[in-house]
Design a protein that fits this description.
The structure is a single chain. The chain is α/β, with parallel strands linked by helices. It folds into two domains: 163 residues, 3-Layer(bba) Sandwich (FAD/NAD(P)-binding domain); 196 residues, D-Amino Acid Oxidase, Chain A, domain 2, CATH 3.30.9. It has twelve helices and 19 strands. It has an eight-stranded mixed β-sheet with strand order 5-4-13-14-15-12-17-16. A six-stranded mixed β-sheet has the order 7-2-1-11-19-18, with helices on both faces. Strands 8-9-10 form a three-stranded antiparallel β-sheet, with helices on one face. It is globular. The relative contact order is 0.18.
Length: 395
């Protein structure tokens, strides 16, 4: 397919898909996005955005919109889940903004999804719901998308932003399904006003314990607290449905002999949702990010455990790079070459983040001598260990 204005087809209407749509539209590319659900919604709870990601949103003109819904914690504190002792601190707020030029933000996933949707309002992007993708068909000068209801759409390129269980990836790469890693995430969102004063917080806190850790931080301008408890275990049922009902008593038993402040937080919350963590190995080549006229973005390309808080961040960075390349191509647009450049620019950084997140999981959940060494190192070198300059400086 050819024409004056190239057209991108996007499979998936989550944060990555909407970010890709906005980046492509800003580059002057026509966009048709296809979401399988009946409406655009974003499940989940909180999300952390490092300065590298906030930079992109500001570049897209969304600084005020982000500020209206996010919280901006003043510090990140690491504590022992067993004793409650402080192990290390990284100052956020003005300090991290001065270091990297942009703040560290925490917000509800639905709020980020919503501000991206609003940003698309006057871009001409076609947003289609009830539009599950069945397959794609390469054409001589384009790509054709087939939906399960037998509708078709033609475009110059296809972006698979359809998440961890991506059908576009399955057809493009023919690889195996993601596998459960043996970690469960219990998630909760609670109004801060409903908590005792000593449990309210405007900072990020990570509690580290043997075979578990808990992360808490403010969202929605600091009015709500997001809490996620990660423990080892398995569940019955469809692991592709991340949003399982959760039993608070099961979580409290899994937390074991943790300190009284953490126990108090666990007992103050009754409504939990359960997520089974499934993973793929870190990317090994650019071929896993794009081939021909088909590109993968976000979790479809590089799913990662949330132990570096960069899953959505890498999807947004993917989108920004794709938009940059489309915007600079102009009349010289050759889609396969452009997508090769996209893949080469992104895959190694994504693989590094995937590997670092997996490594963090081993460190966070360490037992025995490794745990003692971690705690000692954190007390001596807290800020140096918690800061991630290669990541937060962006690309």
């Amino acid at each position: 397919m050819s024409g004056e204005r190239p057209k991108a087809l996007i499979a998936g209407g989550g944060i990555g898909g909407l970010a890709a749509a906005l980046a492509c539209a800003r580059a002057g590319t026509g966009v048709a996005l296809f979401e399988r659900a009946a409406e655009f919604t974003e499940v989940g709870a909180g999300i952390q955005l490092g300065p590298n990601v906030v930079r992109v949103l500001h570049d897209w003109g969304l600084k005020d919109e982000l500020a209206a819904v996010a919280a901006f914690p003043h510090r990140l504190q690491v504590r022992s889940a067993g004793t409650g002792a402080e192990l290390g601190v990284l100052m956020l707020g003005p300090e991290i903004q001065a270091r990297y030029g942009f703040p560290y933000a925490t917000l509800h996933r639905a709020d980020l999804h919503g501000l991206l949707r609003v940003a698309l309002t006057h871009t001409g992007v076609q947003l289609n719901v009830n539009s599950a993708v069945d397959r794609f068909v390469p054409l001589a000068h384009g790509v054709q998308l087939h939906l399960t209801d037998r509708r078709q759409a033609d475009g110059d390129l296809l972006i698979g932003a359809d998440g961890l269980w991506s059908g576009v990836r399955r057809q493009l790469l023919g690889d195996a399904l993601p596998q459960p890693m043996g970690h469960l995430a219990y998630r909760a969102l609670v109004p801060q006003g409903s908590l005792p004063a000593n449990l309210r917080s405007q900072q990020v806190t990570a509690w580290l314990g043997p075979r578990l850790h808990v992360v808490q931080y403010p969202v929605r301008r600091g009015e709500w607290l997001n809490v996620v408890a990660f423990v080892h275990g398995q569940v019955a049922g469809d692991i592709q449905d991340w949003n399982h009902n959760a039993n608070a008593a099961d979580l409290r038993r899994a937390m074991g002999a943790t300190c009284s402040p953490l126990q108090a937080l666990m007992h103050a919350i009754d409504d939990w949702r359960l997520w089974v963590l499934s993973i793929r190995p870190p990317m090994r080549s650019a071929q896993e990010q794009a081939q021909g006229r088909v590109a993968l973005l976000g979790d479809a390309a590089h799913p990662m455990v949330p132990y570096l808080a960069q899953g959505a961040g890498m999807a947004i960075e993917d989108a920004a790079e794709l938009g940059r390349l489309l915007g600079s191509a102009g009349a010289s647009l050759h889609v396969p070459t452009l997508l090769q450049h996209y893949a080469q620019a992104r895959w190694a950084r994504n693989a590094r983040v995937q590997a670092r997140a997996l490594r963090n999981g081993r460190i966070f959940h360490a037992t025995g001598p490794m745990r003692w060494g971690r705690n000692a190192a954190m007390k001596m070198l807290g800020e140096r260990l918690l800061d991630v300059p290669w990541l937060y400086r962006g690309v």
